[in-house]
Automatic annotation (TrEMBL):
Protein name: SDR family NAD(P)-dependent oxidoreductase
PROSITE patterns: ADH_SHORT
Pfam families tied to this protein: adh_short
Record-linked SUPFAM superfamilies: NAD(P)-binding Rossmann-fold domains
InterPro entries (alphabetical): NAD(P)-bd_dom_sf (IPR036291), Sc_DH/Rdtase_CS (IPR020904), SDR_fam (IPR002347)
Keywords: Oxidoreductase
Protein's organism: Novosphingobium humi
Keyword Oxidoreductase in annotation: yes
Protein family according to the UniProt entry: Belongs to the short-chain dehydrogenases/reductases (SDR) family.
Amino acid sequence: ANWAENHIALVTGATSGFGQAVALRLLAGGARVIATGRRRERLAELAAEAGTDRLLTIELDVTEKDCGEKLLAALPDDFAGIDILFNNAGLALGLGPAHTADLDEWETMIETNISGVVRIARAVLPGMVERGRGHVINVSSVAATYPYPGGNVYGGTKAFVRQFSLGLRADLLGTPIKVTSLEPGACETEFSQVRFGGDKDKAAAVYAGMKPLSADDVAQTVEAVLRLPEHLNVNTIEIMPVAQAFSPFAMARK
Ligand code: NDP
Ligand code: 8X3
């Protein structure tokens, strides 16, 4: 039961979805967890639900350039030696074609999913290398590999996360630090509500009539990856609901 005892985990985007589920699983496994996100009231709810002083909640917006250093500077000693990073804060905005998309939405995705992931990784990695201990799990997506209409910049950001993760492995060779690119398919969280600007019906329609992954399915996968032997690195892990698969190429026919 105490598989995560003696670990200190930083989870970004812990106010909802995968991040919240992973934070709860890590806590259940005995870890100390730093749970972060922008929504203060959600962090308070998580703290109330967890009911343990092994949880530290900190408001953090990954679109702020110095968020990584600021976070590390704010950590009390008993949360300072982060050895698990669940680098997860991210979002999709819109599902329209590129030529009508909102440039501000594109830039927000790039700032959050690319710059945010990079900022947190850059802040946390030196300590992991110094202590000779750590596992970074960056949250990519099936959208990194398989393009779909309207996925344009979102898919591009997730392809970045995948390739960045593989590049980190190259740089960290010779250290015991692990890096994994986690690439899930359709999972019912607040993801589609955010993508569709809060339209709950449109979000629900994405998962209608099929069984999507749950946030805890993803957290269970993360736990499994974290529990593998020290000498084994999962470079990438792609998961989908059984009810999701691939399509033939689309053709524009006359
Ligand atoms: P949710 O919308 O449920 O959760 C997203 C989390 O990211 C929230 O906790 C949110 O917190 C946080 N977040 C967003 N923007 C920022 C920011 N600027 N600074 C800090 N935190 C931020 O969606 P998911 O749990 O589904 O998404 C988590 C990750 O998984 C994302 O990277 C997403 O792209 C990816 N993903 C999702 C899939 C799915 O089908 N659901 C499949 C594959 C990948 P707050 O708003 O409080 O800041
Ligand atoms: C989220 C999954 O298929 O909506 O990354 O892009 S998908």
